[in-house]
Amino acid sequence: MENNQNLKINRRDLFVYGAGIAVVPHTEAALEKAGPVSPKIEHSYGVSLRVNGKARRLELDPRTTLLDALREHLHLTGTKKGCDHGQCGACTVIVDGRRLNSCLTLAVMHEGSTVTTVEGLGTPDAMHPMQTSFVKHDGFQCGYCTPGQICSAVAVLDELKQGIPSHVTGDLTAKPMFSAEELRERMSGNICRCGAYANIVAAVSEVAGVAV
Ligand code: FES
Ligand code: FES
User: Fold this and answer.
1) What is the pLDDT of residues 174-204, one digit of tens each?
2) What is the whole-number distance in angstroms between the Cα of residue 80 and the centre of ligand 1?
């Protein structure tokens, strides 16, 4: 039994040891011996996804975001983490045909889903037409936002084909048409810090087959 007079515990230790791990008296020596503490996973959950055409099974801490599952567990690092708060769109992927911010959703919520990341759209030798167009029109500078921009743009054209209206669609009873206004509105969740917007519009417009 430790001598309580030797017990020195600071706020950080209390926080670290209190976060899901039994709170027991520790001297500083005992804490040092224990080394850095990783959050303890009490339960892991199995989740099956179809990612870029391949069946994948993961055992995950249920708090794992889809973004971290893709990047850290499946090593698909094409999808980027910008803000991790749903504000930049760098993490956009296509899930069951709809684009979403993968930082804002937990992987375990997508049991059985089909996920497409930028790696699944095309390869360097066989690029998706949207990837080719981004290269042709210089739709990027640093490239950090680009995987999200490309996934989003592919899904935007699909949304238009399906007749899904946006905030700027005037006539909700008519099929929305591709336009610069529709594109800017629909891509407004994808921020480009380099400001490559004009070239992104040119790239997506070419794939849409509409001059804007
Ligand atoms: S990283 Fe997901 S929106 Fe920014
Ligand atoms: S190309 Fe750099 S953030 Fe978009």
Assistant:
1) 999 999 999 999 999 999 999 999 999 999 9
2) 8
Ligand approaching nearest to the C-alpha of 195: 2
Pocket probe for ligand 2: among 118, 135, 142, the residue whose CB has the most ligand atoms within 8 Å is 142
How many distinct structural domains can be found in the chain? 3
Question: What's the pTM value of the predicted model, to 2 decimals?
Answer: 0.81
DSSP 95-150: ETTEEEEGGGSBGGGGTT-EEE-HHHH--SSS--HHHHHHHHTT--SS-SSHHHHH
Q: Which atom of ligand 2 is nearest to the CA of 192?
A: 4
- What CATH number corresponds to the domain at position 67? 3.10.20.30
Tokens describing residue 61: 């801490």
- Please check whether residues 132 and 113 belong to one and the same domain: no
* Half-sphere exposure for 181 (CA within 13 Å, toward CB): 8
Q: Is the shortest distance between the CB of 144 and ligand 2 below 6 Å?
A: yes
Q: 191 is written with which tokens? A: 């921020």
